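Lecture 7, part B: from sequences to assemblies.

Below are the input chains for today's worked example.
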Amino acid sequence: MKCGLCISKCESNALFQNKNKTPKLFDKLCTGCKTCIYSCPYNAIKEKSKLIGWTYFGKNLGISIYSGELKPSEPLSEKIVDAVKKRGLGKKGITIIDTAAGAHCNVVKALEGCDFAFLITEPTLLGEHDLKAIKKVAKLLGIKYTVVLNRADITGKTISASMKIPYSRKLLECYVDGVSIVEKYPKHEISQKFLEIATGLLK
Amino acid sequence: MRIAIVSGKGGTGKSSVASSLAHHLSKEKKLVLVDADSDCPNQHIFFKGKMIMKKQISVSKIALVNPDKCIGCSICEERCIFEAIKIIGKKAIVDKIGCEGCGACVVSCPEKALTLKPKQSGHLIVSKNKKFYLTYGLLFPGQSGTGKMVFNARQSAEKQAKENNTKLIIVDAPPGIGCPLIAAVTGCDYIFGVVEPTPASIKNLERVLKIVKNFKLPYSIIMNKIGISKKYEKEIRKRFGKKIIGNIAYDKEVACLLAKGIVPYYGKGKAAAGLRRMASKAEKLIKKIMILKD
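Predicted structure of the full complex, as structure tokens:
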């Protein structure tokens, strides 16, 4: 009926209407909240699903790995995080979640419902600054956390942390090759530190 | 002319490249720098200056329950796709972090017990140092609306540029490929992609470039941290070839400079030299495009 009610109710500004024309939807901006559907007095709006990304599942070394991928040019990354979590959570054993960088809503989504968080930083002013932001997020969500300082020894600056990982060419090498240091160099000082943490977590 | 520096993966050196580039270009040109990482902005650590504007802005809303009107019918709970509303003790309670402010509950409530209220999302800041203006958003932790915050920071950069007759705007983009990245590259004329020789970085840059190509934007690539993997350096050269305009060595000195909040451009080591070379190459490129644009 071109009443324009849905336009005024859409908080994502995803609906647009030319004078006396049927409203148009910019699907990239639509979050799927259905406010327009509920507000339309004529039941003129229908819901359709849309592909915004994929989730994956694989197994390696006895670990189940769930991951997700946002389709490039789609903006709502937190929806993918949510989908991956829904698929992977509730399984037996310990669940480890590797969040995105920063303190964006997809990081918040990843942290929600966690029992404990490791906050990783590096000894630079930039690292220190961003650590403050993520600490606030963790506090807001009521998640206990501990700080891990990576490349702890290369700048001379210190940040208080429960675990310090020194700079290591071997660690870098493992990262580039896509294997974990614990697997490749189990005797290495850093691997031993990770082992300590893991034993602590299991307790 | 608007230039964005992107990478996809965090920690590849976007901020180092952006700060070095801004510093180099500001020797000759007027410019405005936008830090488009509104969750964790960093450029103000390098470029301390006089704050000329700091205002609280709202980029999102939150649902508010009037407990006197709420009858606990739970329609709102069923309809909230963000699962941010729960009926506790026969009254609706809104989860402040989960609520996206979409208003589905407001239009659904038969008792009209819910309203939408703007929430304070963060600060919009404009500062001025000796050479240029810096604009950035600083979102309060846990708030949504990063993309909109980036949009606001960019708008205020446009305003500064117009007022000061400045033609060049540099955008330091956030990591990832979601809404804040899209907000950072929208309307740009040229993109610099920063990549390090690791499989994760190459993959993530390719994903950002998909978006860049969607916008049909021209781009160049800057390879950072050379020396950590011959295999992936080769891979990057194979993939991007002539698009590569900067080669920056891996150098621990950069971390030491970042620890003190100094733009890595100023270092004595190999990486700093690489950044300076990259900056003058980029400058020539930018001048060429600016002439073409005029």
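Note for the exam: Chain B touches chain A through 57 residues (CB under 8 Å). Keep this in mind when comparing with the next example.
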